[in-house]
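Appendix B. Extra example for self-study. Work through it before the problem class; the solution is given directly after the inputs so you can check yourself.
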Amino acid sequence: MLIQDIRNSIVDIADLNQLKFDLNRLQPVDVGEYISQLPEKQRAIAFRLLNKSQAIDVFEYLPPEVQEELINSLHDVQVVQLVEAMSPDDRAELFDELPAKVVKRLLQELSTEQRQATATILGYAEATAGRLMTTEYVWLREGLTVGEALSKIRRQDEDKETIYYAYVTDDNRKLVRVVSLRQLLFTFPDVLIKEIASDRVLKVHTETPQEDVAQIMKRYDLIALPVVDREERLVGIITIDDVVDILEEEATEDIQKLAGVSGDDGALAHPLVTIRKRLPWLLAIMGLYIGASSAIAPFQGVISSVPVLAVIMPLFSNTGGTVGVQALTVTIRGLGIGEITTKDTLKILRKELTAGLATAVTLGITMVMLSMIWAQPQERWVGFVAGIVMATNTLVAVTLGTFLPMGLKRLKLDPALISGPLMTTLLDAIGFVTFLSMISVALHFFK
Amino acid sequence: MLIQDIRNSIVDIADLNQLKFDLNRLQPVDVGEYISQLPEKQRAIAFRLLNKSQAIDVFEYLPPEVQEELINSLHDVQVVQLVEAMSPDDRAELFDELPAKVVKRLLQELSTEQRQATATILGYAEATAGRLMTTEYVWLREGLTVGEALSKIRRQDEDKETIYYAYVTDDNRKLVRVVSLRQLLFTFPDVLIKEIASDRVLKVHTETPQEDVAQIMKRYDLIALPVVDREERLVGIITIDDVVDILEEEATEDIQKLAGVSGDDGALAHPLVTIRKRLPWLLAIMGLYIGASSAIAPFQGVISSVPVLAVIMPLFSNTGGTVGVQALTVTIRGLGIGEITTKDTLKILRKELTAGLATAVTLGITMVMLSMIWAQPQERWVGFVAGIVMATNTLVAVTLGTFLPMGLKRLKLDPALISGPLMTTLLDAIGFVTFLSMISVALHFFK
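Solution. Structure tokens for the complete assembly:
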């Protein structure tokens, strides 16, 4: 059931009995979204209609600001129950947002086990495997039999995020093997787990960046990935549901940066966020243009005497920019999904230049033909200059579109720092100055 | 271990014994990538070094063209073993690519069960749930006890894609409940499964588009999703690993289309593919510009007499385009990740216009100030006109950036059909004509 259906199914908000029935029957994520969209005062009322287990599930799906609001408006006992039941990774995310005083009070109320789990996760930097992991996983010692392992799994409480993979450690808690619940179920109980568990364990370190975690889980089709500390000791696992969200966030970031938008500026963002996130890019581009324009300004006389330039230049600028942004986009996305690395720079450049050459010739010829149509007979020579500059500009555009993001990546910077608008501005500056200089020189000979 | 490490670990390709050891030890996806990158003649040699179970796993990770090559170069017996062991959804994907003759021969060689499974999947349209699903899932009848269910799961062969969820059907094979292996393990054996299985079963129909499947699995954090036919009978399940790939593909498509790139034009594409995919967009933009330019051409005289326009117009065009592409990107991505629907059009438009107004004023004022710097004293009035047009152009840009993709979506077309370059060209045409007309009118009064 998608959110549209839920909006319809909760027709009459005034009917509290019906609402209570609906809210306890629907999926927690949908109820979370419904409650978040209510006016502030109604949120706590709706939340109190949930029975305990639904309340616990729904709470994890609420955005941190709504969680904070509820923490302030519910009874302390209820709050502690909710926070205690959260999985440690979600709790760490909430604590990041709450005022330090509230966090301190809540930490004191938690059970020792949950307090330690939260403290561990909060100890790692944001956007790393350590922060993303949960400490609720199944681990087994090497010496167990399959039967013992299965009954250990059954004895553990139901809190574990996944029981479908169990991680096998040696006496020093070092991660050595992994075994799936499926393997355990299909094996005779008296077999030793080390005989069936695989020693090809994929793992990440606590400081591994979240993008790398996501790429590894995607590549190897994993539903859980163990996290180890510097001594290779098992400290947590990351589950696929968190990774799906990260892959989508990373893609959104790439898209937004390419367009000169960033961060939390989604379709539903507050107008002030939108302004704060977009205006700086626009002003930066205008700033760059001041530089570019002071390079064009001396050519005002040239433009005056060859007015067809006013028609040709926008076409020139738009086409060159598009070529550059195409190469830029393909390179940034290729790096983003792990299809290419900086080692491929020359290979990609060779391919882009090969394709670029054909594009350059086609666009150059088209440019000459268009200029012929627009220009006065005595200005037709301008078309040939435009064609040549269009062609070279195309090659410059694909080279920069490939090389700049690769260079940033090699410097360990974000390749998407080169946004589309930045690329366009850069190409405009280079292209216009080349073009206008050539026209000036040509004017000398023709006049 | 990432692909870079593997390239290093397989140092000496000449040493076949070492290579054989490495290829059988590494992860199937890495071996698949390694083999795909070998020269054509070496691929079959490398593949023959794999032991049977590794060969079966690796084969599923090879791209269809390499699979086809191997099918032609391996012995028939081996081919049948490989194809028989593939999961039905991967096999359907391969059969899509193979010549009909080869498919027919292979289908005859398959076991009845696998042949039926493949035929079922091939019967559904591409990019739908039916095509994406596997028929290897666990299903239980309502009347079983937990103990009977567990021993049924254990008795089934190990082929099932996931055993972590079992789907409960009534006597007509209609899907009625779902139960997790975890629930089964934590319950006493004599309890009836219908007492613990949930009747809140999320499911999709065979014809549900793959984007919707992906959004549902992401939203509800599912690792498997059942697929039913029109009579609500269970016919297959979709697993999270397939969905992760789809989410990434959809994001890549959105990014590429925004930049005026499309389809298979990845960073590693063949130059001919790159040319074929990008050049049409470029020529289309040039074509549009012919229209736009014939609108600008009559103003050549105006530009001649006010040369500062040559400096102002590119800035004007680039900034207006960026504003439009920002709004466009946020809207397309919002629709892509299911954050907004066409019902939100007015809401988003209101927000974009609010933010746009502030942007318009800022950019307008900046434009006036910049024109003051560049223009001759007698041309300063141009700056005020430029400022006003810049401001109105900003509002037009955010309106079009929001409205066009929403409109396409409402017409059930792909909102990303409005690419960035198309947006820029459109805004240029509107902006230039407005600007130059206002300047012409003003010239009448001033001269």
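Self-check: Residues 1-6 of chain B have pLDDT under 50 and may be disordered. If your reasoning did not lead you there, revisit section 3.
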